[in-house]
Amino acid sequence: MNNDKIEQILNEHQGQPGALIKVMMEIQEENHWLPREVLVKVSEKLEVPLSRVLRIATIYKTFSLTPKGRYQVNICTGTACQVRGAQQVLEEVQKITGIKPGETDPDMKFSLETVNCQGCCSLGPLVEIDGKTHGKTAPAEIAEALKKYE
Amino acid sequence: MSEIIMQIDGIEVAAEEGMTVLDAAQKAGISIPTLCYLETLEPYGACRLCTVEVEVRGRTNLVAACLYPVEKDLIVRTRTEKVDKIRKMILELLLAHAPVARGLKMQEYAEEYGADKNRFEKEPSFCIQCGLCVRYCAEIKKKNAICFVNKGPSREIQFIPEIAAKECWSCTECFPLCPTEYLQGVFVLTKALAFPSAPMGPTVEE
Amino acid sequence: MPRINSAAELEELRKGILAQKDPDKPCISVCAGIACLGSGNAEVLSAFEEEIKKQSLDAKVDLIATGCHGFCEKGPIVVIYPEEICYLEVTPEDVPEIISQTILGKQVIDRLIYTDSDTGTKAAHQSEIPFYKNQSRLLIGNSPKINPKSIEDYLAVGGYSALSKALFEMSPEGVLDEIKKANLRGRGGGGFPAGSKWETTRNAQPGVDKYVIVNAHEGEPGAFMDRALFTGNPHLILEGLIIGAYAIGSHQGFIYTRHDTPVLRKNLDLALAQAKEYGFLGDNILGSGFSFNVDVHLDVGIFVSGESSALMKSIEGMPPEPRPKYIRTSVTGIWDRPSNLNNVETWANVPQIISNGYEWYSSIGTERSKGTKLISLSGNIVNSGVVEVPMGTSLREIVFDFGGGIPNGKKLKAIHFGGPMGGTIPESLIDTPLDFDELSKLGASLGAGDMLVLDEDTCMVEMARLFLDFLAGESCGKCVPCREGMRQMLKILTNMTQGEGKEGDIKLLEEISGVVGEAALCSLGRSIQKPLISMLKYFRDEFEAHINEKRCPANACKELN
Ligand SMILES: Cc1cc2nc3c(=O)[nH]c(=O)nc-3n(C[C@H](O)[C@H](O)[C@H](O)COP(=O)(O)O)c2cc1C
Ligand code: SF4
Ligand code: FES
Hints:
The complex is a heterotrimer. Chain A is 46% helix and 12% strand. Chain A is built from seven helices and four strands, in the order ααααβααβββα. In chain A, strand 3 and strand 4 (132-134) form a beta hairpin. Chain A starts with a helix and ends with a helix. By secondary structure, chain B is an alpha+beta fold. Helices cover 29% and strands 17% of the residues of chain B. Chain B contains six helices and seven strands, in the order ββαβββαααββαα. In chain B, the strands form two sheets. Chain B has a five-stranded mixed beta sheet, with helices on both faces. The radius of gyration of chain B is 19 Å and the shape is globular. The termini of chain B are far apart. Chain C is 40% helix and 14% strand. Chain C is built from 19 helices and 15 strands. In chain C, strand 5 and strand 6 form a beta hairpin. Chains in contact: A-B, A-C, B-C. Chain B binds chain C through residues 45-49, 51, 62-64, 67-69, 82, 85-86, 89-90, 93-94, 96, 120-121, 128-129, 131, 148, 150-155, 202, 205, and chain C through 302, 323-324, 326-327, 471-481, 483-488, 490-491, 511-512, 514-515, 518-521. The site of iron/sulfur cluster has 14 residues of chain C, from helix 17. Flavin mononucleotide binds next to strand 10 of chain C. Chain A: It comes from Sporotomaculum syntrophicum.
C-alpha cells in the first residue's frame, strides 16, 4: 500500500465532504482496495460520518473492501452479452479459477467480477483480463487466454 | 401561517402550510398506519405503509402520506380498496422477515389488513429496514454508530464497531424504537463488537 | 489561441480554420469508439502513425482518431476522406497496403470494403453501405469527421454558431420559446418536454442560483449511444448546455458521468479546457456578458444513480438514494436549488434547433415525437451498433435494413426496449413506428433508445429474471415494495426456470407487480415490473409451459431439458 499517495489524496480534499466519492475512487484506483483503516481516515479527513463512507463503499461494485488478485477478470453480464452467451463463458471461468464473482483466489492470482454493460455490445460476450479486452469470446478461447497469466 | 382547507375521507380538515398529509390526518384524528415514521425524525418514506390516494384537480395518485405536502383543495382517501391491497401486500412482504412480532404494531396492522404472515417464505432477519435506529442515532444522538450497508435486497443495518464500542452500551435509546423486536438491536450490536473485522463487502444473496 | 470576444471574431476564426483546410488532402479517420478500441483499433492507429512516418507523409495526410462511427459490429473501422472510402475489420497488417494503395495509389482495396453476406454486393463508400444508407445522422454524422480532441475541428463544421446566435440575436425567453415550439422531448427515458422543464427551473425560486446538468450516466445495459456521441463530439453537448444555461439563467453546470470510460473522461476534460480558452465558457462568454462554468462529476454509479434525485444526491457527495419527487428537482435539486437535468442526447439536439429553427426541427419525426433518435442495437442482430433515424421509422426497417436481420438463420422473436425499466414487444408488432407514445401504449417504453433484439432461442422467463437480477444489484433498497417485491419476484422466476414453478405463480407475480408499480418510492421501483408484465402480455404461454409442463419452449432453461 502506498501510504504517501493515499495521504496526498486525503490532504488535497481535507474538509471537503462533497469530494467523498471522488476521494474513494482515487484511492481505489491507486490501491485496488479500500482497507478499513483507510476508510476511517477518509471519514476523519473529509469530516464525513464513517457511516456514510461505509454506506457508499458497500453500494458500489467499483469499491473493494478486500485485497484484489494480481489479475482482474471482468465478465460483462449486460443483457446483450447474456443473449450472446456470457453465462457459459462465466461458468468456464469459474471452473478454471475456482472462484465466484466478487472473489479472489487463495494464490491472489485472479479476482473475478461480473460487470454491467461496457457499451460495446457488438463485441459480446465481452471479457476483460488485466485490462485487455477479449471480444466475441467462446468458453474455450477464454480458457486458453487465462493460461497465459502467471 | 396560512390555513389550508382540504378533505380527508370526506371530512373537511384545516391544515397549515408545510404540513404533510399525515400531519393533517393526525390533527384531525384520522389514523394512517406507519412503520418508518417518528415525529422527532425527518420523514423518510421507506415503508410505504402510509400510502394514501390523493386527488388534485381531478387527477388521482398514490402517495406516501408521511411526505406528501398538503395543498389547497386536496382530496385524500386513506382507505380505498387499492390502498388496503397495497398495505396488505407490504405487510406480508415484511412478515417474511419478522414473523414473531407479537403485541407490536406490525402484528396489529397485520390483523387489521388481513395480511397472511405465511404468504411468503420465511427469511427471518427481524429487520424491516425502517431505519428508525439509524436515523435516530444520526439525527438525534448525532453519533452515527449504526448504518445501512449494501443495496437492493441485500441491504442491511450494521453497527460500526469503532463507534459502537464507545457509545452504544451507555445509550441503547434506539432499541425500543424497533417495530419488530427489541432484542434485535442487542443482537446486531453484539455481533458487530464480537467480530469487528468481519468483512462487510457486498454479501451475495443466499 | 486568444479568447474570442465577439460573434464577428468567431466567424473570422472559423474562416481562417476553413481556409487552412485543403479539401483534397487525404484524411484517415480511425474510429476510436469503445467497441473499435476493444477490437484492436489502437494498434491500427499506431500502425498508421508508424507507416506515415516511415514514408515521410506527415505533411501529405491527416490522421485522426475519432468517436464512434456507429457500425461497431464491423470494427475496427477506418474511413478515408475525401472519397469517404470505408474499410471494415481492419488489422494493423492492412495498414501499409492502405497507405500505398488507397492514399497514394487512389485504389480501393476490395477485400476491406463492405460485402453483403447474402447478395455479395460490394460497397466502397460509407453512404452506400446499407447500414448507413437512409439513416438521418443529424447528431452523430459529424463524429467520423472530427477529432474530438480538437475544438477547431468542431468549429470547422459550424460549431458554436448556434451559441453565438443565441447570445447575440436572441433573448433567453426567445431561446426557451424556440425549444418549446420545437417540442423537444427528453431522450433519457421519460420523453418529458425539455422546454417546459427549462421554464420551471427558470421561474423557480427567483434570486436563487440555478444549475443545469448533463445526465451522462447511461446505466441501462445495452445503451451505448450517449457515450458514443459524447466521446466523439463533446463540444456538441457542451454547446447545447451553454445555450440551455443562457435560457434558464444558470451560471453553473455539472456533467455527471461514469468513471469507467477513460476516453470519454479525457476528451471531456480537454473539451472543457479548450472551450474555456476560446471563451465559450467562463466569464463574459464571447463578450456577451453572460457567464457560465461547468464541473465534471465522475461517479462510479449504480443504475439508480441515473435517476434525477439520486444523481443530484451523489453530486452533493451523498449516497445515491432517490427522494420522493412531490417537489420536482427542477424546483428543488442540488443543495435545494432549482436544477434542470437533461440527457446527453437531449442537450445535443439544442444547437441544431437554435440554428435551423423549430419549424425545421418539427418537420422531422411524428406528430408528437420530433427529430431523430439514436438507437443502440444489440443482442441477436447482425449489425450491432449505433444508428440514428427519424422518429417514426418502423422497427422493421431498423432491425432488418440497418441491423441486417438476425444472425445464424434464426427467426426474430421479440424486441426489448428500455432495459430493466422497459418492455418487450413480439415479432408480430414489428411494423410499429419508433415513437414515445406508440411504444408506451404497447407496454414497451422507448427508454434511452436501447433496442435488444431477441431470436427464437430466447426464453422469456429467463429474460424477465435477468432484468430483475440486474436490478437487485443496482437499486438502493430503501423502500419496501421495491426491495421486498423484487426479492420475491426474483425467487418465483428463478424457481420457474429451474422447474419448480407452482400453480398460482403468475397471479402472484401480477399481484406483487401491481403493488410495486404503484407504491414504490422512485420511478425505478415503479418500473421494475414492466419487462415482466410486457412478457406476460405477449408470451404468457411460455410462463405457463414452465409451470405446468416443466418445459422451456425455447429450450434455453438447462434444468428443464
Ligand atoms: C432508475 C433510473 C435510471 C435512470 N438512468 C438514466 C440515465 O442513465 N441517463 C439518463 O439520461 N436518464 C436516466 N434516467 C432518467 C432521469 O431520471 C431523468 O429523467 C433524465 O435524465 C432527464 O433528462 P431528459 O428529460 O432529457 O430525458 C433514469 C431514471 C431512473 C428512474
Ligand atoms: S423504488 Fe427501489 S430504487 Fe427507488 S427508492 Fe425504492 S428501493 Fe430505492
Ligand atoms: S410511514 Fe410513510 S413511508 Fe413509512
